[in-house]
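SEVERITY: medium
COMPONENT: batch folding queue
REPORTER: lab tech (J.R.)

DESCRIPTION
The queue accepted two submissions in a row. Attaching both inputs and their returned structure tokens so the on-call engineer can compare them side by side.

ATTACHMENT 1
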Amino acid sequence: MRYIKRDMEKIVTELSEQYPAILITGPRQVGKTTMLQNLMEGSDRTYVSLDDLNIRALAKSDPAMFFQIYKTPIFIDEVQYAPELFTYIKIMVDRNQEPGEFWLTGSQVFKLMHGVQESLAGRVAVLNLSSLSQNEIYNSCNNIPFTADLKVLSDRQKTIKVANTPEIFKRIFTGGMPAIVSGKYKDSNIFYMSYLSTYLERDVKGLSGSIDSLSFMKFITATACRTSQIVNYADIARDADINQITAKSWLTILETLGIIFYLHPYSNNILKRTIKTPKLYFYDTGLCTYLTKWSSPETLESGAMNGAVLENYVVSEIFKSYYNSAKTPFIYYYRDKDMKEIDLIIEADGKLSPIEIKKTASPASQLTNVFKTLDRANIERGNGGVLCMKEELMAFDSKNYIIPIRLI
């Protein structure tokens, strides 16, 4: 399988010279293990996976013996299966004070991973790796967090290939799972079917105990049909033939496994009439389009969900650009009770950058009128724009740009 270089590699190397432990979280099959194994080539680092049930049993029952057998520096894969190790890792970190001593991966989101925050707070650098970004797959420039800064966008345009609407929808349909992108597996339908029935279902049952597989498939399909929408537990529960309590619980499981994420609404003391419910997105659009049963990029582009999956793609790519740079994304959406809506608001450097997302190559300047809503906030409004299918960077005026989606 062709190895695709990850934007996060440089970050991992740098942090390994500063922190005694590095934890990389993210869903299965996105390349966490492959990236770290590639980075550890030629070193004396020990690799051990807790997917091996015998090794997992030892780690859980006798952590002291585990570390007598498996010496540091060490790479422990799927560490969430043995939270008993965390206390021993803490002791060794405090005793040895050795940068890069522990590399850890987990197929659960850090903030929801049992035991890590309590044991390793202040001792571990936490990174989140999702499926491949379009920057990693198609571009040759270094990754930086997405920004509406004109100079940054102009510099990126010099090194990034033009991508028209069919190409963007091909990227959306393909998604970013390394096994698909690298060509290891040709049939994405078979891959995602296997992914759901093995890796995902196994982890779901590990988090929830007894669960009906058919009911969960109906649920995750109902969830995918509502990507880029404000979360409505009642609608999801109705379509999946489950109750709302179960729907909320299962959404938490998908978030814990790094399959979905939420975009929360922006509000402050002045903008009080805003909607309070978050919007829901999938990290990987390939999985989302599989679940919603689109057969090709062409049918997806012309289908009823084209706007929703395009928005999902843009939002997830922007989030990936931050995570791959080890930055926290302070990103929101805006919708108030007067039905004024801004797709994205990026808060950085004391400014709010409003962004609209449109499936058009010729956006109208009126789309930016709603940005003035933010002038009532107590934070300065920065540059904004419309992310769209335009092939070249242009501007409506000095503060509002027409930004090709390929430049994320």
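ATTACHMENT 2
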Amino acid sequence: MKCIIHRRAQFSASHRYWLPELTPEENQAKFGVGSNFPGHGHNYVLYVSLEEELDCYGMVQNLSDVKRVIKQEVTSQLDFSYLNQAWPEFEQTLPTTENIAKAIWQRLIPHLPVVKIQLVEHPELWAEYYGNGMEASLTISNHFSAAHRLALDSLSYAENVEIYGKCARPNGHGHNYHLEVSVVGEMNPRTGMIVDLGDFQKVVNELVIEPFDHTFLNKDIPYFAKVVPTAENIALHIANLLQEPLRELGVELDKVKLIESPNNSCEIYCRRATQTLSLARESEPALAN
């Protein structure tokens, strides 16, 4: 039976979004502050996922060997570097998060059974690459604060308490929601981007963050007048709001993850033929928030 293991590494590097065939004004319009000279830097966190049958020692790969390969092929070359000039891959295609992940895959795949590269540029932005040509995924994270009450109008208060517990109390309760939105698309061979990050964030802000933040969901969001605003229903509604506008940007909505509390989160996988809801609950029943 195969097993997947994950190895974490990190490096610090700078980069600049700048195309010499464009004028300074065009670069500014296209890349914003990312085009500023001499560039900007990040503390990148890299997760390398490996899959293989377990060997006779009970390992997918010897972690000492994995650590050595990642250091030799990636981190020793990229740490404290100016990425635009670090590797030939970044001369033709800019070192976006997506393209760096792809380049790291290409450097490691001759040596390790890589199945996924995840590169975290900062806590609110990361990319994943699975070896599918120019296809990559990009995730942004946001948060909003809102209150809700879990109850069905058709049931008595006692019946709602039986189903939803404390969440059915008449005056509701609130959460600091953490939202992750992931999209999939083809990298532009010149810019290295699957989507304009500013446009991506704008869609999420305008359709979700601004309308939902500091609201009582049951009363302020029309959809929840008749739909109980569980974390699951909120995530599903967000996915439905975002799918078409993101498609118009040239990417597909891949996943919406909503973290309601440290004990309660849910994910909507939007590219599957049938939408599947995956719940990650660490506490007892669905009633505990």
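NOTES FROM REPORTER
DSSP finds nine helices and eleven strands in the chain.
No errors were logged for either attachment.
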